[in-house]
Amino acid sequence: MILLVLACQPEADHRFRAVPAAQSGLDFANRLVPTDSFNILNYPYFYNGSGVAVGDVNGDSLPDLFLGANQGPNRLYLNRGGLRFEDVTAAAGVG
Q: What is the pLDDT of residues 30-78, one digit of tens each?
């Protein structure tokens, strides 16, 4: 019985944790401003977002991110490892 108690360990916490933009380099929000012509009545998927693509853009075997925006500029982030990303939108000409 004592062996069973000693062998028990609390489960590790595997939940996601927020990583601040200042640390990750990811600073993106798909902010939507409804208007008389651009709204959920005319566009049923207005609040669904524009899209996210994950792929290795620069061939370094790390997953890079392309984030689409409905009413703002799209963003391309290169993965630099360790949950750090670099915004290369302007250099890539994809904004």
A: 888 989 988 889 888 888 878 999 999 999 999 999 999 988 899 999 9
Rounded Cα–Cα distance for residues 47 and 58 (Å): 31
Please state the domain extents for the chain. Answer: 21-92
pLDDT (tens digit per residue) in 16-26: 889 999 999 99
Largest CA distance in the chain: 70
In sequence order, which residues have a C-beta less than 8 Å from that of residue 39 and are 6 or more positions away? 46
Q: 94 is written with which tokens?
A: 């994809």
How many Å apart are CA 81 and CA 60, to the nearest integer? 10
The verdict on pTM exceeding 0.70 is yes
CB-CB contact of 41 with 34 (8 Å) = no
